Amino acid sequence: MTKKIAWITDTAALLDESFIQKHNIHVLPLNIVFAEGAFRETIDMTHDEFYDKLRVAKDHPKTCQPAIGEMVVLYEKLKANGYDCAVAIHVSSDLSGTFHSSQTASQMANFKVYSIDSKIGSFPMVKMIEVGKELIEKGHNVEDVVAHINKMTENSELSFIPSSLNQLHKSGRVSGTKAFLSNLLNIKVIISFDNGKVVMKEKVRADKKAKKYVTDLLRDDMKKADIPEVAVINCNNTKDAESWRDELLQEFPKLKVLVIPLSACVGVHAGEGTTGLSWVRY
Questions:
Q1: SS3 of 246, please?
Q2: DSSP state of 282
Q3: Is 108 exposed, middle or buried (0-12, 13-18, 19+ CB in 10 A)?
Q4: Residue in 197, 157, 183 with CA at minimum distance from that of residue 271
Q5: Which one of 61, 85, 192, 282 counts the least CB within 10 Å of its CB?
Q6: String of b and e for 249-265 (b: at least 16 CB within 10 Å)?
Q7: Nearest CA among 225, 224, 254, 268 for reference residue 64
């Protein structure tokens, strides 16, 4: 008998509403905590409202995972609605406790949840959901599908370039001196995911060199694997992201290139203006 499977993620994937409705995805919101209180991403504020608040905030906001109680309520509801199990794909466990809370909530609700640590965020999480659902629809069993998605976590890439180090300084990621010198000398840092951890990949002078460095990472991977899609990711910087997309299409006319926003939780740390690239190797 075919199992009734629910699909769950969090707002680090930042799914658009049409995708959520089409695939019946249950989304747990990450929280952005300003001085006046916590706001659930995509529910309590729009992205435009978030960046408006971020620009004028006297105290730098923090981010936190969904409340475990929300997960328990969701799992109990799914069980009551006849679901046999759920597949939950969450943001890297090195950035958030969401993945571990999902495992705990599964036990509390006595509901089988295959919790997956994506080891990343954004675009690759979307692809994991798409591919996973396609495999289920083709008749693959859920355990094999989960194993396939876990393999995808090892083949996913995301690198981004903060527009400045000011926001990283405010969030405690870099010192004030480093931020000052970076802005003074127009030094750009390239930040990437490495087995779930966020690491500084390189420091270069000027935007053009930073973009070339990230694009070179893509070029190298394209020589070794099939990469049908690339996402140009951004924190409220659609203009530069679209320009980067056009450059990629000029070099790789057969490549599918998307322009997608990053979660506001990334914006808290990386800052407005951030751009980058993300892809999955097949």
A1: helix
A2: -
A3: middle
A4: 183
A5: 282
A6: eeeeeebebebbbbbbb
A7: 268
pLDDT value at residue 276: 97
Rounded to the nearest 10 degrees, the angle between the axes of helix 238-251 and helix 207-224 is 50
Q: How far apart are the C-alpha atoms of 169 and 177, rounded to whole Å?
A: 9
Nearest CA to 270 among 196, 201, 174? Answer: 174
What are 162-216's pLDDT values in tens digits? 876 665 545 444 433 343 344 433 578 899 999 999 888 888 877 899 999 999 9
Confidence (pLDDT) at 167: 55
Cβ-proximal residues to 12 (8 Å cutoff; 6+ apart), any chain:
30, 90, 91, 95, 96, 98, 118, 121, 122, 125, 263, 265, 266
156-280: which CATH topology? Answer: Hypothetical Protein Tm841; Chain: A;domain 3 (3.30.1180)
Structure tokens at 51: 């960046």
Start-end ranges of CATH 3.40.50.10170 in the chain? Answer: 5-30+65-153
pLDDT (0 to 100) of residue 168: 53
In the block, residue with structure tokens 């995509």 = 42
Q: What percent of the chain has pLDDT over 70?
A: 91
25, β-bridge pairs:
7
What does the alpha-carbon distance between residue 254 and residue 54 come to, in Å, rounded to a whole number?
38
d(Cα 195, Cα 168) in Å, to the nearest integer? 21
Query: Looking at per-residue confidence, does 242 or 169 come out higher?
Result: 242
Tell me if 93 sits within 8 A of 196, measured CB to CB: yes
Domain with CATH 3.30.1180.10 in the chain: 156-280
CATH topology of domain 5-30+65-153: Rossmann fold (3.40.50)
Which phi-psi region, left, alpha or beta, contains residue 205 (left: φ > 0; alpha: ψ -120 to 50)?
beta
